[in-house]
Each structure stands twice: as C-alpha cells, then as structure tokens.
Write a structure and sequence with these properties.
The protein is built from 29 helices and 28 strands. It is α/β, with parallel strands linked by helices.
C-alpha cells in the first residue's frame, strides 16, 4: 500500500453568482430557519441528508457541473437571493439598548462542556448540550452580546448501534473540522491563535475554532495539535470519555483555557456564566489574571470574580456532580495556588462543603457555588432539591433561604417545530411571532387556527414520522443482518392514523423507560386494540459505562421484536437531533416517567408541546410548573416512598389507567367531520399556555434581567477609579472575617404575649456585641415564619432591626416592629449577617449568627 506524502483537498471553483450560498453555509443560521434549510435541500435532498445537513461538506461534494447548473436555475437563484436578503436583515439589526440596564452594552461569556446547535456539529450528548445550543440561538434572536465557550471534540459523543439481541454498542466517528461550518481562529499575522495550560507538569497547547451561530460566536477549544504529546492531544478527543484524570484535564482546558482564549482574542466579558460545574476552574484563572494584571489581592480579586459570575446547576443527584480526590487536584493544580496567593489547602477548601475536612473530595459544583453570586437550578422543583443537596455549604442558613433560585429551562421553538406548524404560526400568530415567542398575548391567536387545518398539519407530521421510522428501522435491521422477513415487516411497522406515543431520553435507570412495560399483558392489550390502536416509539442512549441503562434498552428491543408487538412498538437507534425533531414533530403524546424529584427539568416534552403534542408525565421538572388538567395528564407521588419497587408498581398502574380511560378514548372521539374536537381543544389550550412559558427566549431574558445586567453593573462599579470599589470591598471583607467571631447576641426581648390580631404590630429588641465592627457592617433582622408540625420555620420573611441605643462596652440595642400579613402559627428569631455592599452576597458568605447559638 502506497502512503501519500502530501494530502490536498481539491474544491470546486465557486461561481461568483453563488457566493451568497457559501456565506450562508458558514453560519448555522440555517439550523433554525426553514427557508434556508430548504435552499440547501433543494440542490440535492438525498445528499443533504447524507451529510447530516452539513453545508460545508455538502457544497464540497458538488461537481463543477452541478454548480454551473445552479447558476442557470432562475428559481433556485431567486430562492437564494430571498434567503440571503433575510439573513442580511437579521445580521444587521441593531440591539435594543433598553435591555442593558443603566450602563453601556457589555459582553457575557457562556461556558458549557457540550453544545448542540446543529446536526452537523456533533459535540453534544443530550439535554445539557441541546439546552446550550438553544441558549445561543435565543441570544442570537434577541440580539444579545454573548460569546460561547466549549470544546472541539475530535470524536464527539458516541454513535449507537445495537447487536442482534439489542445490546448497545458504541463507535466514535472522527469529526473533520475543516469540512464543518467552523473556521480556525487566527491572529493578526494569519497564524493559529493559541493558549496553553499546565496539565500535571506538561504544557498543553490549545488552538481554537470559531462557529457562527446567527449573531453569536461560539469558540471551541482543541488540543489535537502536533506540538502536544499523545495524551495532550487526546484531551479534547471524546465528550465524557476517559477516566477521572481525563475529566479534570478537560475541565482545566475548558475553564482555564477558555478564560485565556477570551483574553487572547481581545474579548473582555463583564459576566461569566458557568453552565454546570465543568467550567468552574475559570474562577481561579480569572483571579490569577486580576492579581497579575491589576495588582489586586486575593480577596479583592475573589470579590470581583464572585460578583460577576453566574452558575447554573443541572444535576439533581450528588453522584452526577464531578468531584476529584484531593491528591489528584494537587497533582493538576499544585502550581496554581501560589500565583493565586493562597495555600493548596485553601484552594481545596473552595471545592468542599466542609472546607476543614481534608478527606472530602473536591467538587466542581461546590467550587462554582462558592465563587459565584448568582446560582440557579433549572426548574422550581429542582431549586428545592439543589438547596437540600448543598445546604452544608451554608450550614447556619435555613434551607429555604439558601441562595439558589431557579430559572426554568425553555426550548428554542423555531429549531424544533415542523415546517407546517411554523406556517400555521406565521399565518395566524403573525409573521413576527418567531421574534417574540415568549409573549403570551401572541399565543392567544392559537384559537384562530381552524381545527381542520391544525389537525391536518399534525397528521402530515405524524405521516412523516412513520415514514422516517420505517426507513430508519430498515437501515438498523440491514446493519444487523436481519432476515428478509424482518426487513419486509420494517416497511409495515406502525400506522399513520393510530395514536402515537413518543419516549426518548437518556437511558438512565431513574428515567424508568420500562415503566409502561411492567404489566405486559395490559400493555399488549393497550397496543393491540383493533378499534382503538396505540403505538409507541422509543429512542435514547445509555452511557457506555451504564450497564443498567444498556439492560433497559436490550429489554425494550427484545419486547419490540415479539410477533404480536413488532408492528406497534419500535426502538430507534442512535438518538440524535434528527431523530428528536421527527419524534417531537410527529407524536400525539409525549411520555415522561422519571422518579420524582430526579428530573432537573427535562425539555423534550416542551419541544413536542410546541408541535401540538400533549404531555403525559410524572409531576417532575418543568411539568411540576406547567401541568394543568385542561392541557395534559400527570401521575406519580409528590414525594418518593423510598420503596422504589412499590412506587414503580403504583405509578405504572396509574399510567395504564390514564391511557385506557382518558388518553385513548379522547383521541378516538371523532365528530361527523372526523376531527377529534376534545383533543384539539386540549392541543390549543396547551399551545396557548405552555409555549410562551417554556421558550428559551423567556429563559435567556430571565438570565439577562436577573443575573447578567446586575452582575455587569457591579463590574462597572468595582472597576471605577482604578478599582477603588473592589479594593474597598476587599478591605471590608478582611475586616468582617477578622472580627466576626467576636460578634454575639447578648439578649433578645419580644413582647410578652402569646397571640395578636392580624395587622397588629409586634415589638422585638436585641442587645448585640459587635466588637470592632461598625453598625453599618452588619444586618440585624427579626426572622419570622410559619411553623410546620415539627416547629421548623417555613415560608420565612425578615424585618430589619435598627440600632437605637449605644451602650457601654460596645453593646448596641436594635429594635423593630413586626407586622404579620397572614394568620397562622409563627416562630421568631433574630439573625445577624454581614451587611455586604453587594446585597446578593450577604448569604453566600455563609456567616450567620442566630439567637440561641
């Protein structure tokens, strides 16, 4: 075999008339604009599909004669010009200055370990990555100044295929970045822009790729460079691959390398958003840079970094949060403590719930929580779970007061709806609905869509899903060497008019993919009813090391292969964005069966709802907020009994009841015109209520208003007058930390009465010793709240107490009058916290003194 001594890509010569086509190909704008997608598909739909909608690879595969032919196709050229004109309008629009608060526009940096923007950029594994992609797309649509940072995985996440008996196997196709819509980041001299990080004593060099996502730029970090060792080159090889050393290496590259890259390309974000804990090492690099470039002390730099950092946690179970043995952290970050100006023990303490426990592992989530001001879970219920999980970080703060709020996830609706449903929205909601999808009043116009038109649109999407499923199943069976009989059956599976249920998730055991299979005779009776038939499509991957998840997939595949069920139940291999789109666009019901409260949010159901599907789910994640009896169905206990087997049995039985008595009869209850009027009423009610609530436009604007703008304003304030603000804050922090142990409550006095009438004031006083601190250094409050049966305060509120008497020996008296707005059984106490100039930091410092301590 002769090996080449030079590799050369020969590309077709691009006709001048087709230059707009190549401009469009270098921006992922087409991924959520149907007209742009249709432009590429129009050239060669089979080839477009084969390249996974990759415009660079697609155009590179065209022959010169094909390009020449396009220059003579007036219909195509007219289509191209129309798309290019709309793209230019989109890209040239100026941002709305009103959204930036009182200061000038600023840049926010969004760090994420995975990002699912388009099929042709397979650097995502599932929900977290798809959410990140939707975050970037909505930021683009809203014209917000945001930059994304992630990793350029050479092999991405695995491709799934199944053996003959249903066992999941994995392959890792190599991404060819030069044939993808991304470009290498170059410096002014035309050389590759590079930064480096230290990995266990080895200098690993990092190059970067730039991806245009509409108006947003996503930078992807890549260590696959000849200058690096084999291990160094492999750091960005696989998403979530390798051992703990590989994981910490990837997170150093993402966090530390990401901050360095932003500086190298001349960007100065005012706000840093860490999407999950993978990028938390960014806070250390930011502190190091501030000390080196601005001469700040560690505490001054820490206060600045904390005040300008946002952290979103997505994982509702402790095991899902990355943690490392202390010795491993010492090996990889041992040289980092000194430039920070702290000891290694102090550095390790930032990643521990109990900083003094030297045996506790270093947790990336804890690090992010400690060194950011703004923390959120991804649904209302998830914020409660997160507060319970991380309460030991702030041991003296009641769980209900812990500084973890929530911003519920949303989906980028234009990316996930079918072309037909999109045309309905344009026709009846207005042509600009896509730019204002979180506006509830816009969705009131759903009522204007004629029932017949909405139903026919949905039926066409179901027909496309059935056709797609048959083709995909035939490919799967052919790859397994199936018999001719099995291949023939693949062309007959499912029915385009039957009630179709979709279930597509990561196959983790807590998601209970087999809940609907617990009573097989009842399941078969449900699917095989000749008068009211039901069919179900499953899809999803298990993590390569998750044997229980793989067993679940094997179980589903084997059951779907039974002669009686194989035409009514299908498992689709290699769940990706393409499979997801067909499913959410074509199913009638989206099924979600997690074990509450382990679903942080879940967004697949939101995508299905935007296409007119109805949601059937456990009251977990987003459905805990969105559910209403008029728009979908819910089941499952509010709290787990602890006996999973018993709970699964109960939930399964209730699920069958809902399907048999509510869902199936309603779907098949048709009027004389053949329309399911009751079903359509629920579809419209669901669209009206849920679409404006669970859009990523609403989600991104919440981040912007609640976190980004206040954080940026704090940044401007801190940097004024040669960093005077942050230096004062650093001195204040030193003063508080040095003197806090001397602060104490000497006496508390409440009115000597056992009950009062609502609206009557109740007096409280407290004598405090505050030592060397000034009264303005502390916040003294009467802490009140209704009591549960165990006399624990819940639903709390606090009333500030003011100093009235300065006694001798530095003892001061504070007082207030408390007014109760509701009746009930209340408990009272007195709380002292630092009166932090940055009010969001009062509780994050973890310094609290209570009456009775």
């Amino acid at each position: 075999m002769i090996k080449p001594i030079r590799i050369l890509d020969v590309k077709p010569k691009i006709p001048e008339r087709l230059q707009p086509l190549y401009e469009l190909a270098n921006n992922l704008y087409f991924a959520w604009h149907h007209d742009a997608d249709e432009l590429f598909k129009r050239i060669d739909s089979d080839k477009w599909k084969k390249t996974k909608r990759n415009p660079i690879a697609f155009l590179g595969s065209l022959k010169q004669s094909e390009l020449t032919g396009l220059t003579k196709d007036e219909g195509f050229l007219s289509h191209m010009d129309r798309v290019k004109m709309e793209f230019d309008r989109y890209m040239s629009e100026k941002p709305d200055k009103k959204i930036f608060g009182k200061d000038a526009p600023f840049l926010a940096a969004y760090f994420t370990a995975e990002c699912g923007v388009a099929d042709c950029l397979p650097i995502y594994s599932g929900g977290l990555g798809i959410l990140s992609g939707d975050h970037l797309k909505s930021s683009s649509d809203l014209n917000l100044p945001l930059v994304g940072i992630s990793l350029a995985y050479q092999e991405g996440y695995f491709t799934q295929y199944l053996t003959h008996d249903g066992w999941q196997m994995e392959t890792y196709p190599v991404n060819k970045f030069t044939a993808m819509p991304m470009e290498r980041v170059l410096d002014d001299s035309g050389n590759s822009t590079q930064v480096s990080v230290d990995l266990k004593g080895e200098t690993v060099h990092i190059q970067a790729w730039k991806v245009h996502v509409g108006r947003i730029v996503l930078y992807l970090l890549d260590t696959n460079m000849e200058v690096n060792s084999e291990r160094g080159r492999s750091v960005t090889s696989r998403l979530y691959g390798g051992d703990r050393e590989m994981r910490i290496s990837q997170e150093i590259v993402l966090g530390i390398g990401g901050v360095k890259l932003l500086k190298a390309v001349g960007l100065e974000p005012a706000v840093y958003h860490m999407n999950e804990g993978h990028s938390a090492f960014a806070v250390f690099e930011r502190i190091r840079e501030l000390r080196e470039d601005q001469g700040l002390s560690f505490n001054e730099a820490l206060e600045f970094v904390r005040a300008t950092s946002v952290f979103t946690t997505h994982t509702p179970v402790p095991a899902g949060n990355d943690s490392f043995y202390p010795d491993l952290v010492r090996q990889y970050l041992g040289s980092f403590a000194q430039p920070l100006g702290i000891s290694m023990d102090v550095l390790l303490g930032f990643g521990r719930q109990n900083p003094r426990d030297r045996d506790e592992e270093f947790c990336m989530t804890v690090l992010a929580l400690r060194l950011s001001n703004w923390h959120n879970g991804v649904s209302r219920l998830h914020s409660k779970v997160s507060r319970k999980m991380w309460r030991e970080i702030w041991p003296k703060t009641p769980e209900i007061d812990l500084p973890i709020t929530y911003i519920t996830n949303g989906v980028h609706i234009p990316s996930w709806i079918s072309k037909g449903i999109g045309e309905n929205y344009v026709r009846y909601l207005g042509p600009r609905w896509i730019e204002d999808p979180e506006n509830a009043s816009v969705w009131e116009n759903v009522a204007r869509i004629p029932n017949s038109e909405l139903w026919r649109t949905h039926e066409r999407a179901r027909e496309r899903l059935i056709s797609f499923t048959r083709g995909r199943l035939r490919e799967q069976l052919a790859n397994r060497g199936a018999s001719n009989r099995d291949m023939t059956i693949a062309d007959e599976v499912l029915d385009s008019e039957s009630l179709t249920i979709g279930f597509a998730r990561r196959f983790a055991p807590y998601k209970r993919a087999d809940l609907i299979l617990r009573d097989l005779p009842r399941f078969e009776k449900l699917l095989l009813n000749k008068d009211l038939p039901v069919q179900i499509i499953f899809a999803g991957k298990a993590h390569p090391q998750d044997q229980m998840g793989k067993d679940l997939i094997k179980k589903l595949v084997q059951i779907s292969g039974r002669d009686g069920l194989r035409r009514h139940m299908v498992f689709l291999e290699d769940y990706d964005m393409d499979v997801a789109r067909h499913l959410v666009q074509g199913v009638d019901v989206w099924l979600n069966t997690p074990r509450r409260p382990l679903e942080a949010c879940g967004t697949s159901g939101m995508k299905a709802v935007a296409n007119g599907a109805l949601h059937l789910s456990v009251l977990d994640g987003w459905w805990d907020e969105g559910y209403d009896a008029d728009i979908g169905w819910a089941f499952g206990a509010f709290e787990s009994s602890g006996d999973h087997e018993f709970q699964d049995q109960i939930d399964s039985s209730v699920l069958y009841d809902i399907l048999e008595k509510d869902v199936v009869p309603l779907f098949y209850d048709r009027g004389s015109d053949g329309l399911p009027r009751g079903w359509l009423a629920m579809m419209k009610a669901s669209l009206h209520k849920l679409c404006p609530m669970f859009t990523s436009h609403r989600m991104v604007m919440e981040y912007w208003k609640k976190f980004y703008v206040p954080s940026a304003e704090r940044q401007y304030h801190f940097k004024e007058n040669s960093w005077e603000g942050v230096k004062k804050l650093g001195s204040w922090r030193d003063k508080i930390m040095f003197n806090w142990d001397s602060v104490s409550i000497k006496d508390i006095r409440f009115d000597e009465i056992g009950e009062i009438e609502m609206g009557t004031s109740y007096h409280a006083e407290a004598d405090l010793f505050i030592g060397e601190l000034a009264p303005e250094d502390i916040m003294v409050e009467a802490y009140c709240g209704s009591l549960d049966p165990s006399n624990t305060i819940q639903h709390s509120f606090a009333v500030p107490m003011n100093p009235v008497v300065n006694q001798e020996n530095k003892v001061s008296t504070y007082q207030c009058d408390i007014h109760f707005e509701e009746t009930g059984h209340y408990g009272l106490n007195v709380r002292i916290t630092p009166n932090h100039p940055d009010t969001e930091s009062r509780l994050t410092m973890g310094l609290v003194i209570w009456g009775g301590d």
